[in-house]
Here is the input.
Amino acid sequence: MSSSAVETVSPVRAWILASRPATLPAAAVPVLVGTSVAMNESAAFRPAVFAATLACALLIQVGTNFVNDYSDFRRGADTEARLGPLRVTQSGLISTSAIRIGIIVAFGLAVLVGAWLCTVGGWPILAIGTLSVLSGIAYTGGPFPLGYHGLGDVFVFLFFGVIAVTGTAYLQTGDWSRDALTQSIPIGLLATNILVVNNLRDRHTDVAAGKHTLAVRIGERATRAQYALFAGAAYTVPIAFALKGEFRPWFLLPLLTVPFALFLARRVLSGTSGRELNPVLEQSGKLLLAFGILTAVGTLLSR
Here is the structure.
């Protein structure tokens, strides 16, 4: 974005950019899926718990995005050579002091909402919430930033897949669900693919900044294969659920997104690179959202 275009960005728009809306499905979808599994198993639905869980997940995601914007700029990963969307700290739209306040506010609100959830779910939710906040900060911040040591993919799979889906279901029912654990796998894989595209696009600039993401470590070809493998593996779970015991076709609803997934996988495998990957990143978030909604609907209809 040119300097003149940057000057026309309003303060509200700047904070929206800092929150990275394209990544927010990764926070919302696990809550939808975990709640649907809980309703499938126990026919119970606690609206206040659902709303608080969703709010907490989104606040932690936004706080993490603020930390990433701040830390990547301070560590030299975000420069004028950046190929991805505008970053507010690097561009000067939001000062480093202001973004630090934003980090405190986002995580502070998450802690306040999470405190009430701890009264509902007890010490397991306290542990999950604490780890989520600390990991969100440590993703690019602190003395050992996870994203700079090739651990970002593991972080996303666990916290936006396994932990988020199973933790949400637990908050609704008070029990740990095997089905929630299984349903968390495709959600984690598709959420991780958002990061895979991001790191594929930024591989060369990350090398220059000393940011050793998994894409940097395994190389371009393997990273493109990783995206296709994760996308394909995600669809094995709804098929397995549909065929488990009595055939339940509603579990196959996520397969409606297969053409979209194939389109994105082809783009990644075809060698699409640089700024041309920005739409793929945004569309990967939309794929996760569509897959998650259809998973939740299919799960509810299979009760």
